[in-house]
Amino acid sequence: MRASAAPVRRQVLGLDGLRGLAALYVVLFHCWLYAFPGYPNSSAPRVLDVLMFGRIAVVFFLVLSGFSLAISPARHGWRSGGVAQFLRRRAWRILPPYWAALAMSLVISLFVVPASHYGPPDGSSVLVYGLVLQDVFFAPTPNGAFWSIGVEAELYLLFPLILLVRRRFSAAAAVACVTLPVIVRGLMAPGANPVEGDNWLAPHLAPVFVAGVVGAGIVVASERVRRLPWGWFAVLAALPVLALGFIQGSVWTVRHYFWIDLAIAPAMTMLIAAVATGQPAFLVRLLTTRPLQRLGDFSYSLYLIHLPIVLVVIRRVAPHFVAPGLHTFCFTLLLGLPVSVLTAWLFSQIFELPFKRNRSWKSLMAQSRPSTTVPEEQNQPPVPEATASRGKSPSAPVT
Fold first, then answer.
1. How distant, in Å, are the alpha carbons of 130, 208, 231, 241, 260 from that of 244?
2. What is the model's pTM?
3. How far is Cα 362 from Cα 358, in angstroms, rounded to an integer?
4. In which residue ranges of the chain is pLDDT below 70?
5. CB-based contacts of 29: which residues, under 8 Å, 6+ apart?
6. Which residues make Cβ contacts (< 8 Å) with residue 335, sequence separation at least 6?
7. Nearest CA to 204 among 146, 274, 260?
8. CA distance 312 to 316
């Protein structure tokens, strides 16, 4: 995509709304997952099968993450402003709320309800999850949603290299370098369908992240390219994947996520590109409504802490009031969903938003006490960094 000489808006509207809706779907997925045993052959009513695709939310989060991170580099010649600075800012933005959620999850998993069938977390869990190495080393998890944080952390390390290939060669080269080895690996697996374990998922999911990165080129594309019907392109790209899943069934789809992930990523990228270019207008208006924007503001916190709350409701509270199955699911929607959202909002006020609004401890401390001085970041020129929507974080995926 060629850069346009016309000025571009600094803020990309609608991405926070997408992020908020994706996070809300993740919560609904976990309400469904733990209320009905037997995944993927769930005992849930068939009408609720639409809630079983939590992995697809993972893919969408990763595409959106790559897109959001690449917006600023795309506007600055595909440069990140320095690898060390990029990684420091990502760590500052992601780790404080993650570590706070880790502490909360450890307490709940140890003393209230286990988070895994492998047993309660132990010392290895603290070490592995504290260092965000859960995609590399196995340890009993304190929070089943945290696996994706490890994947995201690894993809951050890959991000500067992706930008380098995109800058020196082309978008196609960036996609090919990451995607072709994954396809070869898939074809060489027994039955051409690799069986995934509990970790080492980043190599498989890297192509969907790269799809988002190259898709961010839409923000600096010519007006002719920006006016293309990206929303319809997204629909056309998604139709074959949706049709295959409908024909083969939901269980087959879940058991073939290796290929489904790769197949659905282009459609997701084009959907995000459509929103980034203001189309369709009704969708952008919906995504920019105050409730969805507010939800997007703390979607990372919602992702981090909702699962322990859902498990407490399903396994410790619901059995005292309702029967298993559908009654427990409805009870969890009525209690667990609003409690998760409200707690996530409160959590974000303490552990997420202060680190989103400030770029250093000095600035953070200055904001916490009355002062007439100008905040540190207001005295600094903008530095190219992989963020979108005024520094909003890409929330991590789920399962």
1. 40, 19, 21, 5, 10
2. 0.89
3. 9
4. 1-10, 370-399
5. 51, 52, 53, 54, 57, 398
6. 313, 317
7. 260
8. 5
